[in-house]
Amino acid sequence: MTLLDNAKRLRREMTDAEQRLWYHLRAHRFLGLKFKRQKPIGPYIVDFVCTECWLVVELDGGQHQQRTEYDQQRERYLESRGYRVLRFWNHQMLAEAEAVLEQIRLEIGKQQGL
Fold first, then answer.
1. How confident is the model at residue 5, as a pLDDT?
2. pLDDT over 60 (residue 114)
3. Is residue 103 one of the residues assigned to a domain?
4. What confidence score (pLDDT) does residue 63 get?
5. Count: domains in the chain
6. Considering the domain boundaries, does residue 72 fall inside one?
7. β-sheet with 84-89: strand ranges across
8. Among residues 63, 3, 65, 87, which one has the least CA distance to residue 38?
9. How many Å apart are CA 30 and CA 71, to the nearest integer?
10. Main-chain phi, psi angles of 34, to 5 degrees
11. d(CA 35, CA 38)
């Protein structure tokens, strides 16, 4: 399976947390910015990315507790390409959506000097 095929599959099989965040980010709903979901960047697929402000947003489930080395390597790669990476746990998005969205807004504001 190619990286693009895998990204398409991940778009079809989004978690509840991803679906909830996507509702807020899609169609320029969040600060008028365009976000993409399950987007390949180099050898990795990121959950959400705003290329206008070079921001990647990742939602992690429990499997990421066993993949910290991989996640760190992935984050270093993205940062070396100029992206900032924000990570949240799935349960944070499901239980505290407004707080997650506020964190994203603050990070974008820092970058844009707001």
1. 93
2. no
3. no
4. 64
5. 1
6. yes
7. 36-41, 44-50, 55-60, 84-89
8. 3
9. 26
10. -95, 120
11. 10
Helix (H) or strand (E) holding 74: helix 68-80
Task: Answer yes or no: are the C-beta atoms of 76 and 44 closer than 8 Å.
Answer: no
Angle between helices 97-112 and 16-25 in degrees, nearest 10: 50
Indicate whether 63 belongs to any domain: yes
* pLDDT for the residue numbered 1: 81
Q: What is the pLDDT of residues 9-23, one digit of tens each?
A: 999 999 999 999 999
The label of the residue with tokens 């099989």 reads 13
Distance of alpha carbon 9 from alpha carbon 3, whole angstroms: 10
What digits encode the pLDDT tens for the residues 26-72?
999 999 999 999 999 999 999 999 999 999 999 998 665 567 888 89
Tokens of 111: 């970058």
What would the two tokens of residue 94 be?
């499901």
User: Could you tell me if residue 27 is inside a domain?
Assistant: yes
Which structural domain range is residue 63 located in?
A: 3-83
What is the pTM for the complete model shown?
A: 0.91
Distance CA 41, CA 43 (A): 6
Provide the residue type at 86 as one letter: L
